[in-house]
Write the structure tokens for this entry.
Amino acid sequence: MSFVNSIINNKLSEAKELILARLEEIIAKRLQEAKRYVAEDMSEEFLDEAKKRRNPNVIKMGRIQKIRRRIRRNKQGRIVLQRNVQRSALKGYKISGKTVKRIPANVRLHKARMLKRSWKTTRKAKLRRTLFKRRMSMMRRKSIGLR
């Protein structure tokens, strides 16, 4: 019996049950659609964040980073593509042989003092040249497909 017939026959309780059953069907259907849309949105956001965070050129293997490709210059000044270089993934550590070892405190302090001294004397003058070279390097990397 339909909703309209139950109202005409003055069976209001049946009409009420029919309305509630139909509403539950509609709600279930809409909920399924909403869940699907939310899942798609969440997966897109997750993938976007993962792509932003992860650099495909750098592979992290535990405490070691393997950098697949870098642009460098050799002794003759030619541009070379450096491949598969390993370095420490942890700050304050270096690779010694096959193991990752802590850089001693006196070495770190000495390096910091030397960097501070170099900025006072020569580094400011070389900064513009360095920035220009970085811009050129980024252009080369983009042409190879590293960026």
User: Anything to note?
Assistant: The mean pLDDT is 84. Residues 3-53 form one domain. Residues 12-53 form the longest helix (42 residues).
